[in-house]
Amino acid sequence: MKLALKFLPIIKPISFQLRNIRTVGAMACSRYEYVKNYEVKDVLLPNVWIIIRVDGKGFHKFSKEHDFEKPNDERALNLMTNAAQTVMEKFNDIILSYGQSDEYSFVFRKETNVYNRRSSKLLSYVTSLFTSCYVMYWPQWMGNKKLTYPPSFDGRVVLYPSDQNLRDYLSWRQADVHINNLYNTAFWNLVQKKGLTNKEAEAKLRGTYAAYKNELLFSEFGINYNNLPGMFRKGTILLRKQVNRTKHDISKQLIVPLHEDMISDIFWKKHSELLAHKYSPGLYTQTDDDVVSESFIRHVEKVSLE
Ligand SMILES: Nc1nc2c(ncn2[C@@H]2O[C@H](COP(=O)(O)OP(=O)(O)O)[C@@H](O)[C@H]2O)c(=O)[nH]1
Ligand SMILES: [Mg+2]
């Protein structure tokens, strides 16, 4: 009796659960099953470009806290690119990624059927994978600098119906890096080399045109803006390329970082596979001058999780 009393609280819930299980056809369902219907079917429109952009949360503070170099920290930018490469490895249908500052955009093929085009699945997977890679690869790029708190990234999905929309989106992000980088380069030179306070430097640059900042950098600091690293001026574009060298395994695909001008038509002609009727990676030629370094090219052997 004593024993039975002891087990009563356990037995009761089990019998309660059993009462609430019914059989529908051959399938056993619980009466709770209906809650599944509340899940929103957030399927993205067919036949449109899908862009997922991740952006560092509060990176103004995060970069200060972790002593990022100003205005550009090469290691931190490479860390972002490294994380983006892994995302591209997992999703075969990403044909182009573009990163600058604390953000990365991923462009999926219009026809992709990954996760049945379910928005929340796609967005959460890309964002969480990118974030975990950022943390995992941190020591590789940032050396002894310890992470003092966990970084996070927000993510959004944007759809573009036309190729022109896609080009304009990428041009918008690339124009953004140009505007910010020119300003930041002038600003930090005034502060670090001329000893101006932040307020003074801000006042000196307020309302000025690009030509003024270019001239200021050249005449006061001997800096030819156009000679600064492409990664700082143009951000990083990741493209898939097929190896075309007999020494290499022909089946291998590369993920190649470039710092080219996506605003110009030349880029889209050179990488014509991107807007072709049927996409397949373009050929990799070693003459691509803007390649960061051989070691940064990822050889893709894994395929997507589709
Ligand atoms: N010093 C430094 N800061 C950077 C670098 N990349 C990004 N940041 C910082 O990250 C911020 C990113 O901008 P935004 O996303 O608008 O700001 P958030 O809302 O604070 O993440 C920039 O304003 C910088 O403060 C870098 O390479 N060096
Ligand atoms: Mg941010």
UniProtKB/TrEMBL annotation:
GO terms for molecular function: GTP binding; magnesium ion binding; tRNA guanylyltransferase activity. Its cofactor is Mg(2+). Mg(2+) 1 binds at residues 55-56, 102. Mg(2+) 2 binds at residues 55, 102. Residues 32-161 form the tRNAHis guanylyltransferase catalytic domain. Its EC number is 2.7.7.79. Keywords: GTP-binding, Magnesium, Metal-binding, Nucleotide-binding, Nucleotidyltransferase, Transferase, tRNA processing. Transmembrane segments: none annotated. Binds 2 magnesium ions per subunit. Residues 164-249 form the Thg1 C-terminal domain. It is an enzyme of class 2 (transferase). It catalyses: a 5'-end ribonucleotide-tRNA(His) + GTP + ATP + H2O = a 5'-end phospho-guanosine-ribonucleotide-tRNA(His) + AMP + 2 diphosphate + H(+). It holds the Pfam family Thg1C. Homotetramer. Interacts with MFN1 and MFN2; functions as a guanyl-nucleotide exchange factor/GEF for MFN2 and also probably MFN1. Adds a GMP to the 5'-end of tRNA(His) after transcription and RNase P cleavage. This step is essential for proper recognition of the tRNA and for the fidelity of protein synthesis. Also functions as a guanyl-nucleotide exchange factor/GEF for the MFN1 and MFN2 mitofusins thereby regulating mitochondrial fusion. By regulating both mitochondrial dynamics and bioenergetic function, it contributes to cell survival following oxidative stress. Belongs to the tRNA(His) guanylyltransferase family. This is tRNA(His) guanylyltransferase.
